[in-house]
Amino acid sequence: MAAGLEDLFGDQPPGEPDEAAGERKRAMIIAAHPDDADFGAGGTAALLAQAGWEVCYVVATDGSKGTDDPAYTTQTLIETRDREQRAAAAHVGVNDVRFLGFTDGELVYSRDLLGAITREIREFQPFAVYTHDPEPVIINNSFVNHNDHRITGLATVDAVYPTARDRLNFPEHLAAGLSTHKVRELYLWGANEPTFDVDISSVVDAKVEALLLHASQFGDRDQFLSFVEARWRDEQGRALERFRRVVLFR
Ligand SMILES: [Zn+2]
Q1: Cα 124 to ligand 1 centre (Å)
Q2: Is the pLDDT at 219 greater than 80, yes or no?
Q3: How far is the CA of 190 from the centre of ligand 1 (A)?
Q4: Which of 132, 180, 206, 229 is 20 to 30 Å from 221 by CA-CA measure?
């Protein structure tokens, strides 16, 4: 018997599906690059998986630009980052990873991108979707929110509402046997004004190990751990993932 959300998330757990109405315990985490899902929501994914939810990662780009190492060709880098992402996801209990295959660093808002994300939502039928907050260009007055992050976040928000919901959008999906879908909750990471904290202290080690499985990106373990301590811990020493939460109407 899996633990309940309140056992794992404390007194402010995320919303739960109405299983009697056919909603399912499914969360989809939609990210721009290999490693973004792990950074943004890997701890939350681990907690949901422990609670018996099915969790799926969707990665918009192929990760084909993120290295200075001349040993990689574009093709070997794509293969490496695909393999690393699958291993990292599996480490937090996520065994469903889908790549949309757009070119790293070149993401533009397009009908192709919106259609690809909408298709994944209609196919998986998640209760909750987690993605990049598309709004900030600058986060915490300290770093630039990568263009691929903003584009992925914006296309995902649009796919959630209204594109996936309405049958006349991308009718070819319905012709192929998929159904329209209403996502109930949206969680955005990288927000300047987060409204929903998840205490991931119980799974933070798994999150760190998952991130370190992206070995082509994070070489130095000690350096990475000190970065993590500074970024994720609050004053009480809890490790947090912080989101802007949107509960969509029924
Ligand atoms: Zn990224």
Answers
A1: 23
A2: no
A3: 11
A4: 132
Task: Give the start-to-end residue ranges of the domains of the chain.
Answer: 24-247
C-alpha gyration radius of the chain: 17
Cα 187 to averaged position of ligand 1 atoms, centre (Å): 17
- The pLDDT tens digits of the residues spanning 113-163 come to 999 999 999 999 999 999 999 999 999 999 999 999 999 999 999 999 999
Regarding pTM above 0.85, the answer is yes
Give yes or no for a contact between 28 and 41, defined as CB atoms under 8 angstroms apart: no
Contact 129, 188 (CB under 8 A): no
pLDDT, position 109: 98
| Residues counted in the chain | 250
The pLDDT assigned to 1 comes to: 56
Residue 63 C-alpha to ligand 1 middle, in angstroms? 9
Going from the Cα of 112 to the center of ligand 1, the distance in angstroms, rounded, reads: 20
Q: What is the CATH number of domain 24-247?
A: 3.40.50.10320
Ligand 1 mean position to 150 CA, how many Å? 10
Contact 152, 30 (CB under 8 A): yes
- Residue 67 and residue 84 in contact, taking contact as beta carbons nearer than 8 Å: no
Match 């309940």 to its residue by tokens: 4
